[in-house]
Amino acid sequence: MAIYLNQVGYLKDAKKVATATKAGRYQVVNVQTKQVVWEKECNAGAFDAAAGEETFGVDFSEVTALGDYYVTGEDGSRSHPFVIAEKPYGNLHKDLMKALYYQRCGCALEEEHAGIYTHAACHTEPAILLEDYLAGTENPQTFEMQGGWHDAGDFGRYSTAAAVALAHLLYAYELFPESFTEELNIPESGNGMPDVLNECLYELEWLKKMQREDGGVYHKLTAWCHAPFIMPEEDHDPFLLYPVSSLAVADYAAVMAQASRVYKKFRPEFAKEALTRAKKSWQWLKEHDYVGFHNPEGSNTGEYGDGDDNDERFWAACEMARADEENRAEYVAAAEKYAKMVSKTDFGWVDVSALGSMAVLTEKEIFTEALQEEVAQAVITETDRLLQIQEESGYGVAMLPEDYCWGSNMAVCNRGMLFILRALCGGKEELFQEAALGQLHYLLGRNATDYSYVTGHGEHAFKNPHNRPSECDGIEEPMPGWVSGGPFGTPADEAAKEKIPAGTAPMKCYVDDVGSYSTNEITIYWNSPAIFMTAYFMK
Fold first, then answer.
1. Are 481 and 505 in contact (CB under 8 A)?
2. DSSP for 350-372?
């Protein structure tokens, strides 16, 4: 018998359910007093296809006294400990954000702010254009490109990924500013601006450099191939500016327009520049059709390819409409055009259309009633579908077996964001708040692997992320606050293939191994939707 639950904790007055693998009598026990505070027979089971096993819900929602607890079964099985609190996700929220600081590129991480996770400045050399690199140009033009966040377990920096992560964070701040009052102990702390905006500004200042004079935006800044497992300051391979894509241009226009609104109160000059840059990229989009991106043969850094840019253009139009009042009619018309071509319900980097939906539904007076209704209906239809999936899941997560893709925890978190958008704008807030909580519970341990997928949070948190600094810094414990990619139904790396038996159910296709890039890498845009969720539950 196994008992799976949120290893971090539960909101005092929210629904509290664990998942067990056998029927029987279960108890909730206070950690300090050893007193049994709840007891019940749980015999109603259901087969969970994603986990490949029979499951039994242990609903102890009536336990509301603040404290530390664990759940036990009649056979002596015992869950990991957890808390019941008014705001149980405070430390988690802070660490999810601070993890982004540890990904800073181009500067030293000093002990004062990084603690034991220090390293020297990295990737300070100028970059060159890919075409000059491939041509072997003797004296190529160089570009100062320091700054930003390493995207994932590698050292690359990618425009589309950066824009999406920034958007999650900026929307979270806009909607739940009261959840971002605590300082993160980063170099800018105490400067009068919330630290989430300080950290985002570090990325935005780098992202500015990715724009050409004509408004085009380079797709990515990486070496030709991924570096071996070394510390970032030991990587001296030349960094290359890969060609412009319309995907990068549209995402850039959208997030710069958003930043122009968010930073107006704190950094008016930056806000003005951000809008100017956004307008320049919008003009580029008007003059160019779809321009995709594929890695040239032999280059293996992240591709972030996408065969359709209508969702990026939709998001850009929505954010430009909010930021540029003078030309609003043009942007609203464009948003209405592109809305008909996209899902309007996904917060990932492939489909960013839900970011446009968030813009429409949280500042309705700018957009036409027809567009509002179209977007709202799309969100309602999709969240109703996801809610049905969640209600049929033995682990209370809105994921079908086929949804366990590479980076499945991104899908989990993004669906949590969509549930929150429905709660904010579509009524039934309590129902969809609980649905979003279900995604967070899964992430933090109520899943068939028994892992909390956030380093440093939960008694059985994963410890071996596919992340070069974590592996090479000589420190046993990883930096806290990183979200793992999570189960991938068709493991794609040698570590996962070796350790995951053929035929394993999708939810169990995970291995906590540094070599498993297909199940255990970290990225900025897996943390960012988790931050959005915790911000909502911190408000």
1. no
2. S--HHHHHHHHHHSGGGS-HHHH
What pLDDT tens digit does each residue of the chain (539 aa) get?
A: 799 999 999 999 999 999 999 999 999 999 999 999 999 999 989 999 999 999 999 999 999 999 999 999 999 999 999 999 999 999 999 999 999 999 999 999 999 999 999 999 999 999 999 999 999 999 999 999 999 999 999 999 999 999 999 999 999 999 999 999 999 999 999 999 999 999 999 999 999 999 999 999 999 999 999 999 999 999 999 999 999 999 999 999 999 999 999 999 999 999 999 999 999 999 999 999 999 999 999 999 999 999 999 999 999 999 999 999 999 999 999 999 999 999 999 999 999 999 999 999 998 899 999 999 999 999 999 999 999 999 999 999 999 999 999 999 999 999 999 999 999 987 789 999 999 999 999 999 999 999 999 999 999 999 999 999 999 999 999 999 999 999 999 999 999 999 999 999 999 999 999 999 999 999 999 999 999 999 999 98
Compute CA distances 194 → 92, 168, 188, 302, 303, whole Å.
Answer: 18, 16, 9, 31, 33
Active site residue ranges = 154, 466, 512, 521
Reported pTM: 0.98
Distance, in Å, from the CA atom of 75 to the CA atom of 25, rounded to the nearest integer, reads 9
